[in-house]
Design goal:
By secondary structure, the chain is α/β, with parallel strands linked by helices. The chain folds into two domains: about 240 residues, Alkaline Phosphatase, subunit A (3-Layer(aba) Sandwich), CATH 3.40.720; about 140 residues, 2-Layer Sandwich (Alpha-Beta Plaits). The strands form two sheets. It has an eight-stranded mixed β-sheet, with helices on both faces. Strands 3, 4, 5, 6 and 7 form a five-stranded antiparallel β-sheet that branches. Helix 10 runs parallel beside helix 12. The chain is globular, with a radius of gyration of 23 Å. The structure holds zinc ion (ZN). Zinc ion (ZN) binds next to helix 4. The site of zinc ion (ZN) has 7 residues, from helix 4.
C-alpha cells in the first residue's frame, strides 16, 4: 500500500503506540525441542494473554524469500519501504558505532588488509587483527586531512573500521576497492556513474595518504574500502505520520536506525529490560505517542545457534510485559525485525509473527504468540512496512479514505 496515502490520512491525535521488537525472534522447528520453535517451547503466560485479547499475524520484512539485515528490517517496521529507502552498508557501519551521520556524508567500510611488497593482497582481513590494534591504526589515520572535506575515521571491530567524508558534492557511485579475493592488488578508485568525480578524488587522496601511514605496519599494512553510502536524511515519523516518537534501545546500531526515523533517544538505566521499561515510561510521561523498544538477545542467541538461550530470552521478554502494560500505551505491538533460526545461525527470510493488542481487533483467533499460530492469525500475512498503518488505525490515528 502506498505509504503516502497513509501519510495523508494520518491524524495528529489519537492513542499512543508501543512497538516492541524482539530482534530475530522468528525461528524454525528445533529437533532438540521435539520440533517446537523457541517461541513454542518458551513459557510465555503474558504473551499468551495478550495474544488471546489481541490479533496475531505474520509480516514479511522485505519480501518472500528475501533475507533482511537488521537495518532494513527495522526501517520496514517504522513504516519505510526498505527497498525504496536504502541505507547503505557504510552508513549502517557508521550508525552501528553511534556516529551521527549528517545529510550528504559519504560513509564507507574499511577492512585493514595485508599486502606483499608488490602491493598484492595476501590477507583481506590482516589475520583478523585485534580491536585494540584496529583502534591504534585508526588513531594513526585520524590526522589525515583533505582540503574541502572533513574526514572521520572510526574503529569498528577486529579488522573493520569505517571512514566518513563530510563536504559538498560527494557521491556514493564509487566501486569498492576490495577485489574480494587474495592474489590481486586493491582496485583503483573508480566511479560507477557520472557525477562522482569529486568523491573519487577525495577517496583516492584518502587511500593514498593512508597507504603511506600504514605501509611499514604489520600485519595490517593496507586498507580496502567498500559499501560506499551517501547519507540522506529520511522523512521522519513526525513528517510522515504526525507522531512524536521515541526509541529505547541498548545497542548503537538500533539507536542509529531509530534516529534516522527522527526518534528521540531515551537512555536505559540499568542497561537491561528493566531499564528499558523505565525509559519507555519516561517517554510516555514526556508526551511521546510512539515508542520503539528493542530486545537484542533473541537475535544473538539465534546467531549462536543456542536454542535454549533463545527460549530463555523470549521468557525474559515475556516477564517484562506487565511492566510494559503499566506504561499505559493504547496499542502494543510485539514482533521481530526478521527471523534468526537457531539451526541456521543466520538471519533468514521466514515471516515474523506480529501481535497487535489494543484498539478494535478480531480477537479470539489465536492463543499463543508462535510462528504456527501467526500463519493463520486474524491479521494474515502482510509486508513489514504495512505494519505502521495497522498500528495507526488501531490507535485511531488514521482518517477515513474518501466520502
Ligand atoms: Zn535484527
Amino acid at each position: 500500500m502506498a505509504t503516502d496515502l497513509v501519510s495523508r490520512l494520518s491524524l495528529d491525535h489519537g492513542g499512543s503506540i508501543l512497538l516492541a521488537v524482539m530482534d530475530g525472534v522468528g525461528d524454525i522447528p528445533i529437533p532438540e525441542f521435539g520440533g517446537l520453535t523457541p517461541l513454542e517451547k518458551a513459557k510465555t503466560p503474558n504473551l499468551d494473554k495478550l495474544t488471546q485479547s489481541g490479533a496475531l499475524g505474520q509480516q514479511l520484512p522485505v519480501g518472500r524469500g528475501i533475507t533482511p539485515g537488521s537495518g532494513p528490517g527495522h526501517l520496514a517496521l517504522f513504516g519505510y519501504d526498505p527497498v525504496k529507502y536504502l541505507v547503505g552498508r557504510g552508513a549502517l557501519a557508521a550508525l552501528g558505532i553511534g556516529f551521527k551521520l549528517q545529510h550528504g556524508d559519504l560513509a564507507a567500510r574499511i577492512n585493514f588488509c595485508t599486502l606483499d611488497d608488490a602491493g598484492v593482497i595476501l590477507d583481506r582481513r590482516a589475520g583478523r587483527i585485534s580491536t585494540e590494534l584496529c583502534t591504534e591504526l585508526v588513531e594513526a589515520l585520524k590526522p589525515i586531512t583533505i582540503p574541502g572535506v572533513e574526514v572521520f575515521v572510526e574503529p569498528v571491530k577486529e579488522h573493520r573500521a569505517c571512514v566518513i567524508f563530510r563536504g559538498p558534492g560527494l557521491s556514493e557511485s564509487i566501486h569498492d576497492t576490495d577485489p574480494g579475493l587474495v592474489g590481486e592488488k586493491p582496485l583503483a578508485v573508480i566511479a560507477t556513474a557520472s557525477g562522482a568525480e569529486r568523491a573519487v578524488e577525495v577517496v583516492a587522496e584518502f587511500i593514498s595518504k593512508a597507504s603511506v601511514i600504514l605501509r611499514d605496519k604489520t600485519p595490517a599494512n593496507g586498507l580496502l574500502l567498500r559499501g560506499f553510502a551517501l547519507h540522506e536524511d529520511l522523512p521522519t515519523l513526525k513528517d510522515r505520520f504526525k507522531l512524536n516518537p521515541a526509541a529505547v534501545a541498548l545497542y548503537p546500531m538500533y539507536r542509529g536506525v531509530a534516529s534516522l526515523a527522527g526518534m528521540e533517544q531515551y537512555q536505559s538505566e540499568p542497561a537491561d529490560l528493566s531499564g528499558e521499561i523505565k525509559a519507555a515510561k519516561n517517554a510516555v510521561k514526556d508526551g511521546k505517542d510512539f515508542v520503539f523498544l528493542h530486545h537484542k538477545y533473541t537475535d544473538s542467541s539465534g546467531e549462536d545457534g543456542d536454542h535454549e538461550r533463545k527460549a530463555t530470552e523470549i521468557e525474559k521478554f515475556d516477564s517484562a510485559i506487565p511492566g510494559l502494560l503499566e506504561c499505559g500505551f493504547d496499542v502494543i505491538c510485539i514482533t521481530g525485525d526478521h527471523s534468526t533460526p537457531c539451526p541456521m545461525k543466520l538471519h533468514s527470510w521466514h515471516p515474523v509473527p506480529v501481535l497487535i493488542y489494543g484498539g478494535p481487533q478480531r480477537t479470539g483467533w489465536s492463543t499463543r504468540f508462535t510462528e504456527r499460530e501467526a500463519a493463520s492469525g486474524a491479521l494474515g500475512t502482510f509486508q513489514g512496512h504495512e505494519l505502521m498503518s495497522l498500528l495507526l488505525a488501531a490507535a485511531g490515528r488514521l482518517a477515513k479514505f474518501g466520502a
